[in-house]
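Render DUF58 domain-containing protein in 3D.
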Amino acid sequence: MKFLKPIFLKNRVFYLLGFASLLFALGFSWPWLVYIGFITLATLFIGIAIDLQNSAKQAQFISISRKVPKHFSMSDFNEVKLLIKNTGSHSVSIRIIDELPLQFQKRDFEVLQKVESESSEVHTYSLKPLTRGEYVFHNTNVFFTGKFGLVEYRKTISAKQIVKVYPSFEQMRKFELMLFNTGHTQDGIRKTPRIGHGYEFGDIRQYVPGDDPRSINWKASSRVGHMMVNNYQEEKSQKVYAIIDKSRVMRMPFEGLSLMDYAINTSLTILNIALRNQDNVGLITFSKELESFIPAQRRNNQIQKILDSLYVQTEGEYESNFQGLYESLRTKVKSRSMLLLFTNFMSLNALQRALPELKRINRDHLLVVVFFENTELQKFKSNKVTNLFDIASQTMAQRLSEELDQVMYELQKVGIQTIKTKPEDLTANTINKYLELKSRGLM
């Protein structure tokens, strides 16, 4: 019975069968209708046979291949191409059902395409993955309909492909291009002028009005007979670590992504920018204990190592262990570094439990705590109240919002740099903070 599996009857077959059944039923009263019923059935079966032969013949001349990128970028639209080739002498209208990965949960995805004789067509569609991991594309099913529209014949093309979904490298490239190539402000990125000057010697050049007199090189000036100044440049090869909290507080969803997903995408972007800025970059992830550690380096394959590590990260079910984080940093990160800690504090009490360890970390390094503003809470505060329960709920929301503001104040009071941001503004705000701290020479 395998030969019947690719054959599907169209709706008009059942309409004609119903019509024939009606003729047979009426034949009890008008016998001549029975003959018309037999003629209808005979015509139907002949039409099915012709359609089946026609559609099966069309399938011999159609070939389809799927072209997907080597990797998908999470939370971005990724293009998939279907290359359709018709080697026959007649144009063909086909219906294509591509078996997408289960993660997309698309049950109604289909493509209607007409392919002219002896020609090729390319159909492009986009997919937006919202989770990291391996995505499996399965078969491509092509359906051919006969000229009478009675039968649909399915041709199954084996096209299993596995695609890895990485953190958003498209976002990484966009911000890299924006910051290093264009030189103008977009999406909230701003160039921060350097305050004072760096301490890394660059070269000696001739004095021009407006130069800092403290930079005058008197020995060089005496040799050439005119004023020369030392030219300093921004310090390079400093160490920058992205530290991602993988505890349960980072599982909160926002527009299809968890807070940890936002932190991962931003970590990849900021580390790539720091690497392009000739700093050494590394990665740390933790929850109950330290889970991933990539030492800060400036190598050609450093971003790929970070990508491969971020690709497999998942949120945990435990509380953040800041004591363990401090102990790990003390043994693994010996020199002073910029630490971008992506976490989330739900209340002032949560901060107070972690604050002693954060203060100890900040003594040895330049710590930047990045946590999230609860945008849903802000929306809820602006809702209209209609009863006593709404008033009580909004009062609690206002109190929680004030606690989160107090969290930022308590961190700044002890000298810890902070970023409180909406999830959608996380990348731009983090880049701006990095540029600001570099310009102020705080490392």
